[in-house]
Every structure is written in structure tokens, then in C-alpha cells.
TrEMBL record:
PPR repeats lie at residues 44-78, 79-114, 115-149, 150-184, 221-255, 256-290, 291-325, 326-360, 361-395, 396-430. Keywords: Repeat. Belongs to the PPR family. P subfamily. PROSITE patterns: PPR (PS51375). This is Tetratricopeptide-like helical domain-containing protein. InterPro entries: PPR_rpt, TPR-like_helical_dom_sf. Pfam families: PPR_1 (PF12854), PPR_2 (PF13041). The keyword Repeat applies. It comes from the Eukaryota.
Length: 500
């Protein structure tokens, strides 16, 4: 192309750039754009927009904004795609405050007219960063400003409402979009179905499914089917769950590892381990590889059934299948060993996995500390507690409370008091179990001065926290930089869009 005389139009170079983007070779595309600038190849605003998009995908926001300056330098005018891409890039890098400021200033100074993609991008970012109320407000303003929301916009708001448990509001918005002629898709229905299943509103689940399949002609995808299988399984409706899997196979929506794991979880919760293992065999027969989550379900069930030998056999099978046990895997096994009173074996297992370089978190330490304390191995528990900081972990409130209760139960009151002081110094409080144990000891034994002092510390620290707690008002000013400005620009003077 460079050897052709005259040079091809910028349109042809843009096509080449677009092809690179579709193949996700973003760094190559940026390098190609740089060469085009150096070699004086004709470029236009579309070329810049493609390059900015590549920079955002490559996490090079600094370069993306320098290209924005290059647009002005060359005499071009950034368009709505330019700014929408930059806003999306900021949001993808968890820079929601900067995205809100940019969006606010652009609208305030009338630099561009946001379109449905811009609004949807901003609304999605607000929802993901916990500003769902502002997202809903912007959604209503969007309609009033003459920009018609599309299926993506509605689905984003509906998903946000469902995650907050506002299922009736989500259903109302779903009905509203249909009334306005905006057709929902699978992404619209899935979160509503999930939250309805969570609150056991099965009649409405059936109604929505009928509407989805019969009226809207939308075939549920694997995600929707899996939601239903999981919900039916957790509610003990195993026959319905199995029937759904049959329907999936009939429709060519073949269940995946997540779907089968939900069914396996249901069998395990009922103690039907033979059926759970049959599901595992089905997974293998379908040429799928069980993952750690699948194994953890079985391990947890066998540990609850106190069948540690079987659990350990499964654990060894994981290594044979090339699976790396997770933190949860080891926590389940340690908890199982401690429940059987095998605290010494649990400690040995802990040191073994530590020596093998497996990841250990504070939850594993808590599990083992709790087991050691309950089985009266307080000295070993104290040694393990001191190892947490040596291994770069900071004891949290639960960890402190476990070790304090262990000392109290074994009448090691002085040590319990020292740990209480350390816990309070770290800004933590005694939990309800520790406080209750202290009260029980004070009532059942001679008034020990150390116990009395500890109890007073519990009461004092609790009152201190209540008196100094910061109450953050749930108003529009709590959204961070740019949030108040955005609301101030858009908020109508005569009516309240949030209420509409």
C-alpha cells in the first residue's frame, strides 16, 4: 500500500487497522498507526478513534488521551465515538470518578451530544461502581433528553436492580420496556429469573419463562438454564432440575461443568453421595474435565459425612488429573480433620501443604486455630497464631476472637487478656460469641479480676465505636468526585426524574 502511487485513501488504511482490532492485535494496530503518522499516510478522525480504542484495550490511557490532543492539533473535531471510547477506557480501568468528571464536563460545556451508546456506557459504569441510584436517575434523564434507551440500557438497569434485591422494580421496568416496543433479550430475563428463584417466587418464574419462550421467541441459553438448574437443585426440586438438563440436551444447549456441579451440590446436600458420584461420572463421560469447584463440593460433603479417607482419596485424584487445589480445598480438609478431633494430623497436613508452596490465607489459619483450640491444643494454637505475621498475614477480628476464646476455655485468662488488648489496639472488637463466653464465665466462676477487666474492655470498646461511628448520608453527594457536579447539571428544577 505504501508503494502505491498515489497512496490509497485513508479509508483503506482504516480497513486494515479495523482488521487488526478484530483480531485483537491492539499493540500491532497502535504501532501501525504510529508508522502511518511518521510516513505521512493520510489519516482522519476515524483513524484516531480506532487508535484510541486500541490504547484503551491495551491499558494505555495516557497514550489514548495524548491522541485526543493530537486530534485537536491536526484540526479535527472529536466526535461522540471518541469520547465514548475514552469514557469506556476509564471505566475499564476502575477510574469511575475520572469518567464521571469527563462526562460531566463534556455535557456541561456542550462539547458533544451523548448518544445511546454513551449513556449506556456511563450507566453501566455507575452500576458497577455502586452508584445504582445515580444510574437510574441518568437513565430517566436520558429519556427526557430525547435519547431513546435500547435493550442494553434497560438490561443494565434491570440487572443492577436485581443485584440489589429490588425484583418488583426490575419487573416493572421489564414491563415498561415491552410497552415502549423495546424487546428484551436473554440478558434481560436471566437476572430477573435468578432473583425470583432466590426468593422462591416460582409462579412468576414460570410466567416469565413462558413469556420469554412463547411470546418473545427467545430460547434460554446455557446461562439461563444453569440458573434454573441451580435454583431447583437448591430448593430440593431435583426432578425438575434433571428434567431441565434433559430439555437442554434436546435443544442442543448442552450443560456445562457449572450446570452439572449445581446438580451435584444438591445431591451432596441431601447426603446422596452415590448419585453425586454418578453426576461426576456423567461429567467425565461427556468429555468434560471436573474442576476444583466440582471436587470441593464432593470434598465438603464427604467431610460433613466424616468420611475423611474418601475425601483424601479424592484430593489425591485432583493431582492425578492435573488440578491445583485451591485455598478452599485445603480449608475444607483441615476443617474435616479438626471436626474428627484429628487436630495433630490437621497441623501436620498444614505444614505439608505449606512446604509444597500452596497458597495459604487467613481463613486456613482461622480454621486450624479454631480446631486446635476446641481440641485443647492451645499451645500449638498460640504457636500457629504467631506464625501468621511471620508469613505476611495480618490477623483479623475473627482470628483474634478464636484465639481469645481458646485461652478462655482453657482458663488461660492472662493470655486471653493480652490478646484482647492487641485486638482492641488493632481496632477490632470482641464478637458476640466471645462476649457471651465471658459473661458465662463470670456467672459460673468466682469473680476473677482479669475476666472482669476483659468484660469491661468489651463494654467500653463497644460504646466507643458507637459514639465515634461516622454516619454517611445516602444522598447524591456520596458519589465521589464529579458526582455532585453531574447531578447539578442534569437535575431538573421542576420535577424529580428519580421518582418518575
Amino acid at each position: 500500500m505504501l508503494k502505491t502511487r498515489p497512496l490509497p485513501y485513508d479509508f483503506h488504511f482504516n480497513q486494515l487497522l479495523t482488521a487488526l482490532v478484530r483480531m485483537k492485535h491492539y499493540n500491532v494496530a497502535v504501532s501501525f498507526f504510529t508508522d502511518m503518522c511518521t510516513l505521512s499516510v493520510p489519516i482522519d478522525i476515524i483513524t484516531f478513534n480506532i487508535a484510541i480504542n486500541c490504547c484503551c484495550h491495551s491499558n494505555r490511557l495516557d497514550y489514548a488521551f495524548s491522541l485526543l490532543a493530537g486530534i485537536f492539533k491536526r484540526g479535527f473535531v472529536p466526535d461522540v465515538f471518541t469520547y465514548t471510547t475514552l469514557i469506556r477506557g476509564l471505566l475499564s480501568q476502575d477510574k469511575s470518578a475520572e469518567a464521571r468528571i469527563l462526562f460531566t464536563n463534556l455535557v456541561k460545556y456542550k462539547e458533544f451530544q451523548p448518544n445511546v451508546v454513551t449513556y449506556s456506557t456511563m450507566i453501566n459504569g455507575l452500576c458497577k461502581t455502586g452508584h445504582a441510584d445515580m444510574a437510574l436517575w441518568l437513565f430517566r434523564f436520558m429519556e427526557k433528553s430525547g435519547c431513546k434507551p435500547n435493550t442494553v440500557t434497560y438490561s443494565t438497569i434491570i440487572d443492577s436492580l436485581c443485584k440489589r434485591g429490588l425484583v418488583d422494580d426490575a419487573l416493572n421496568l421489564h414491563s415498561e420496556m415491552i410497552e415502549k416496543g423495546i424487546l428484551p433479550n436473554g440478558c434481560t430475563y436471566s437476572p430477573i429469573i435468578q432473583v425470583l428463584c432466590n426468593v422462591n417466587r416460582w409462579g412468576e418464574v414460570d410466567r416469565l419463562l413462558k413469556q420469554m419462550i412463547d411470546d418473545m421467541k427467545i430460547s434460554p441459553d446455557i446461562h439461563t438454564f444453569t440458573i434454573l438448574v441451580d435454583a431447583y437443585s437448591k430448593s430440593g426440586k431435583l426432578d425438575d432440575a434433571k428434567r431441565l438438563i434433559e430439555i437442554m440436551n434436546e435443544r442442543g444447549k448442552y450443560p456445562d461443568i457449572v450446570t452439572y456441579s449445581s446438580l451435584m451440590q444438591a445431591y451432596c446436600s441431601r447426603g446422596e453421595m452415590d448419585e453425586a458420584l454418578a453426576v461426576l461420572n456423567t461429567i467425565r463421560s461427556k468429555k468434560m474435565t471436573p474442576n476444583c469447584y466440582t471436587y470441593n463440593i464432593l470434598l465438603d460433603a464427604y467431610c460433613r459425612e466424616l468420611k475423611l479417607d474418601t475425601a483424601m482419596d479424592l484430593y489425591r485424584n485432583m493431582a492425578c488429573e492435573g488440578l491445583e487445589p485451591t485455598v478452599e480445598t485445603h480449608s475444607i480438609l483441615l476443617h474435616g480433620l479438626c471436626r474428627l478431633g484429628k487436630s495433630v494430623e490437621a497441623l501436620a497436613f498444614f505444614y505439608k501443604i505449606q512446604g509444597q508452596g500452596h497458597k495459604l490465607d487467613i481463613v486456613i489459619y482461622r480454621t486450624l486455630l479454631d480446631g486446635l483450640c476446641k481440641n485443647q491444643y492451645v499451645d500449638k494454637a498460640l504457636s500457629l497464631f504467631h506464625l501468621t505475621r511471620c508469613n505476611g498475614l495480618i490477623p483479623d477480628r475473627d482470628t483474634y476472637n478464636i484465639i481469645i476464646r481458646g485461652c478462655l476455655r482453657n482458663k488461660r485468662y492472662s493470655e486471653a487478656c493480652k490478646f484482647m488488648d492487641k485486638m482492641v489496639d488493632c481496632g477490632f472488637l470482641a464478637d458476640a460469641f466471645t462476649t457471651s463466653l465471658l459473661q458465662h464465665l463470670l456467672l459460673s466462676e468466682v469473680q476473677d479480676p482479669i475476666l472482669l477487666a476483659m468484660h469491661q474492655k468489651c463494654l467500653h470498646s463497644g460504646n466507643h465505636e458507637e459514639n465515634h461511628r461516622v454516619h454517611i448520608p445516602e444522598d447524591i453527594n456520596s458519589g465521589g468526585p464529579g458526582f455532585t457536579a453531574l447531578y447539578g447539571i442534569f437535575k431538573p428544577k421542576e420535577d424529580n426524574l428519580c421518582e418518575s
